[in-house]
Amino acid sequence: MAAQERPAHATPSAPDGKPQGLGAPPAPDGKGQGQGLVRSLTHRQTTMIGLGSALGTGLFLGSGSAIGAAGPGVIISYAIGAALVAVIAVLLGEMSAAHPVQGSFGAIAHKYLGPWAGFVTRWMYWFSAVVVIGTEVVAAALYIRWWWPGIPMGVAILAVAVLVLAVNIINVKSFGTTEFWLSTIKVTALCAFILCAAFLVFFGLPDTEVTGFVHLTDDGGFVPHGAKSIWIAMSVVMFAYAGFEVVAIASAEAVDPQRTIRTAMRQLAWRLSVFYVLAITLVMALIPWKRLASGDGSVEASPFVRVFTDIGVPAAATLTNLVVLIAAVSAANAHLYGASRLLHSLGDDGLAPAPLARLTGRGVPAAALAASTLGIAVAALLAFYDVGGIFSILMSIALFAVLLVWLLILASYVAFRRHRDAHPEEFTGFSVPGGPKLAVVAGAGVLAVAATAIEVPDMRQAAGVGLAFTAVLLVGYTAVAWRRKGAGTGAGR
Q: Least buried of 112, 224, 463, 485, by fewest C-beta within 10 Å?
């Protein structure tokens, strides 16, 4: 079978050479799934998919809430977040390059931490991705209503939902091509925005004075709410970076997974740092931070759109709104892909209803795709009943869930490196110097972000939902384990 068509089911065996415990991913022969997932994503497509999932609502819309929390000091929050995510991305890249398998970091957690970890990691990530999908679709609907306020929120949400589902249902090659171009448009536009904003900051226009960086300090100072606000803002900022994990998930359908993962994760780390930190700095240099802040937590317009609106360039504001609309659709598209693939792997391992494991003739997990649109349905329902603060509520729940996933990824990495260092002959590819120590530092950073629940009401609510869902998952895993033990299936498939 050609490399680009071989099944993407193969998961490495446990350290003792046998599938490890409950729900072990299927063997390399891919029995039970026909041709399986198809390796057709190119290197460029996979890299852009990562940017597509990370450059979305968190930067273009959610930044207003973060600015309100910390003022100009939010720049430090974004810089810290960039460093934290860079570490997690590179460590995940090392693991994924060694094991480019269906189920990605969930299958790796199963192998190195135990079956329970694989079960919880994949279900938790699916849960967070589903919420993110709903969040991105809500954001896209807000952007549409910026042009046509009379359109009902539910109708706008439905239109975006149909679009992203249609792109994903055709085949993975269609998804990869679409996401590549959507991501290319928004990355190009963001670069153009940064150049234009920098020109206004340093040179101005004939009828617009040079702003310089006075707005960063002229209204209460650089950190108007105190140093503590930088930490509190992390509860919003980290959501902006969530989504880079889709690159690891896509490795199971990449033509050259080792090369793709190695370079894509590194590129994501520095690109996200530059885009987020530089863009936020320039936005706040142009517009006083209090006018960018969302105030009550309800975000009605992107700070990026307001930059051009406030300086009197309506045509540019319209163009910017189009770009951020594309960004939201692209992010929803990428997260739907990631959620459906992990849900499909759970079904294939017998850890979710069997129909979720089925693939269409084109290798698309249609049932898993349909189930992963649950977040869109919830978002539409909340919009229909006009529930206030939809965006901030969904964003906080998604962030807390993904923080738990990141902790499990980092724990998996420590166990992975312990095994890799003991058996170097089993592995090829790159290895991150001082990786285990970096994982511990990153884990402390993730816990610090989760601790914002002490101060932030939305995060407290999200923590309650997230921890309750984790408890449900552990009970569900126990039930599945007992059922399998009683049926005599024992450890694995």
A: 485
